[in-house]
Amino acid sequence: MTTEAAELSQEQQHGTASPAESLSNLPATAFESDGDTSLRRRITYMMLFRVVLISLVLGATSLLYWLSDEDLTAPNATVIFAIIVATYLLTIVYAVALTRGLNQQRLAYFQLAADLVIASLLIHVTGGAQSAYTFFFPLAVIGGGIVLYREGVLLVALTSALLFVAVSVAGFYQLLPIPDGQRLLPHELEAIQMIRMLGLNLAGIAGVGVLAVNLAGQLERASASLQTERSATANLMSLHEDIVRSLPSGLITVDNDDHVLTINEAACAILNTQSSKVIGSDYQGIMPGLAALLSQTAIVTRGEISLDTEPQHKILGVSISPLFGADRERLGQVINFQDLTEVREMEKNVKQAERLAAVGSLAAGVAHEIRNPLASMSGAVELLREGKPEDDESAKLMGIVTREIDRLNSLIRDFLDYTNPSPPKKLIMDLCDVLNDTVTMFKQDRAFEGVTVESRFETSELVLESDPEKLRQVLWNLLRNAAQAAIEGGKHVDVSLETQGDSVVIAVRDDGPGITEGDMAKIFDPFFTTKSKGSGLGLATAHGIIRDLGGRIEVESRIGRGSTFVVVLPYSGAHEHVSGVRQGSV
User: Fold this and answer.
1) 197-233 as b/e, with b when 16 or more CB fall inside 10 Å?
2) 21-50 pLDDT, tens per residue?
3) Is the dihedral of CA 475, 476, 478, 479 positive or negative?
């Protein structure tokens, strides 16, 4: 693996680069295979081939001189070894220049020119046209084709032919100096032999040039095709990454060993985690409820799971399907999920509103029908009391009838308040005054003499626009419910007030027995109550009032630890304490 490829792998593992981004920014040397045609790699191959070839020449030359018992320090041997050493040194210079980021095309031209010069020198000191190293020129032609394609073939082939003719003819006519001890002398050739040698070698250079042109054309087309495919692959991967990243739903892939392979941004946001912490870990660590769904045998599994994440409990709709490779081999699972918490809460509110509307319509009709007979019954009882003396038993019975009639009237009044509530009358008010007054009055209720009610406000004055009478009604209902619950617990109720951003939060806490999970879903339903004498309309009415005021009521409860009813109201914080503010709070 190349250095660039290794760096790519590390970046993907640490989540610092997407596959598409890494691919599009990756140098060609890290992307291509053994048959690639990048200029950098082609130059590297040519340098490697040159080192191998010159090493063979060095070995063969040394062996020949050793077998012939000739002096290796003779001038002709020294020149040959100097050429070989110079080739090694130039290769080192090329490698340094390549790593320093110099212009690669210029470096390629320079190397080809240096190869032709070295080949010319080596041929001259080894016999000219009759040298055993004339094959260096055809090899240079092939190298030019590999590195610079057709342009390189034509340029190197023409230059090789000219240099070969020039060196051979100059040696034949003794125009170039010849080192002492050279065994094959260019000028000792007969003219006909000289012509034959020139013809054969020029034909060889031309033939190799023709083949190299064809090879260079194929390499050039392969390179262009590879670059096109590489660009298309990068675009496809980038498109894939963009699609997955833009999905509003969470997407996770896991392998057959239940380890997370990939996770998109939406999944990280829903699960409140980071991809670097999740990839490679067991999926059960982040979505423990998935085990039951993954164990099913259906090809595509759908369901819902509950997940406890900070800062809230979430409900996720999950779809699980198999992950297949190109050969249809099963690689793992694809987990697609959405946060349905708000949807389920909305469905719950809609169902509750539908129930409230149906019950309200029925209650309004029943209330009007019952109220008239009750009035007649109450009048008749009063007339009976006035008509003749009553014994103790009759007085007791009439008292029971009168009391029950009053209770029915109260119940009907609650019906009407619930089914036909008056619209809120919003005033500029001091919420602290409203809460203090309500708590003070509630403490006077002898029915809850054993219950301690404490209030804790963040500020001594909190001005906002709302309906003070409606808020008193809501707070009174919440205090009564809390006190009734506290009687069965520690007999302590706490009322708090604070601001949170653009909201006002009123919390009424008790230390009673708490609310069961089954009852929590129904506490705001009309006529639902766990009290023997309750109507079940107090919390339903309070819920409707707060909703009309633009707020909401939330409930937190633990069995044996008590319950907390939280009223959240909108608050801009922009109101000033002005003259007349307290009119709405009195």
Assistant:
1) bbeebbebbeebbeebbebbeebbeebeebeeebeee
2) 444 444 443 443 333 346 788 888 788 888
3) positive
Closest Cα partner for 370 from 340, 338, 337, 404? 404
In tens, the pLDDT along 57-107 reads: 777 777 766 666 655 555 566 777 788 888 888 888 888 888 887 788 888
Closest CA to 202 of 116, 283, 137: 137
Higher-confidence residue of 466 and 67: namely 466
d(CA 512, CA 561): 7
Least Cα distance to 53 among 80, 22, 88 occurs for 88
**Dist. CA 564–CA 492, nearest whole Å:** 12
Short-list 510, 508, 509, CA closest to 488? 510
Residues of the chain with CATH 3.30.565.10: 427-583
State how far the Cα of 426 lies from the Cα of 316, in Å rounded to an integer. 39
CATH 3.30.450.20 domain locations along the chain: 248-339
Where do the CATH 1.10.287 domains begin and end in the chain? 345-419
CA 136/CA 122 separation, integer angstroms: 9
The owner of tokens 């009195």 is: 586
Q: Assign a CATH topology to domain 427-583.
A: Heat Shock Protein 90 (3.30.565)
- Band of pLDDT at residue 162, cut at 50, 70 and 90: very high
The phi and psi torsions of 532 (rounded to 5 degrees) equal -70, -30
Interatomic CA distance for residues 322 and 330, integer angstroms: 7
Instruction: Indicate the CATH number for domain 248-339.
Output: 3.30.450.20
Question: Do the Cβ atoms of 266 and 272 come closer than 8 Å?
Answer: no
Which class is domain 345-419? Answer: mainly alpha
